[in-house]
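FORM 7B: Structural annotation worksheet

SECTION A. Query
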Amino acid sequence: MIQIMMEWLAGNQIEVLGAILGIAYIFFSTRQNILTWPTGLLTSLFYIVIFYQSKFYADMGLQVYYVFISIYGLYFWLRGKKTDHGNKAPVRTTPQNLWILLAFITLALYFILLLILIKMTDSDVPYMDSLTTALSITATWMLAKKYIEHWLIWIFVDLLSTGLYIYKNLWPTVILFGIYTAMAVFGYLNWKKDIHQQQIERIG
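SECTION B. Predicted structure
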């Protein structure tokens, strides 16, 4: 049994390392730790390879986006510390007019990705792959800007993605996204406490 497990680990090193880094990434993001972005960048580099091999082409493109948004998030969070006199960039709620814009952009991304996957790839899950990718692009941008509601999007995306990865037999990634789902709930509650603390400080 141990030998079989070791052989499996040896044959799936990239996915295992990506999953471990992914857990570190989500942990740091729930804590609003600046290490969110370096670990996120490394996770994305591993998953570019994993998703290419599994024909999750939209998710593969999403990982490329994550590389660039990780650099942007690192810049914004560091800049936030400077502009807030040494404090971390504050958690915010998403304005209603921004929700409308984000919904429109997400829908447009979904149809663009769907068209690309259907016409230009051999993806066998184009509809779900496009949906999770479009929502993930939006949620990651919201994370970089520290909008708390990005956690709610992640809860939905992570649950849906878990089902997709079960279908593809990506078991370390299934475990990773199960952990993602639980930690997204924790992250939302943790960030909500931060907003509540900000409100108390304003009143005080």
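SECTION C. Observations
Residues 82-86 have pLDDT under 50 and may be disordered. The longest helix spans residues 171-203.

SECTION D. Sign-off
Analyst initials: ____
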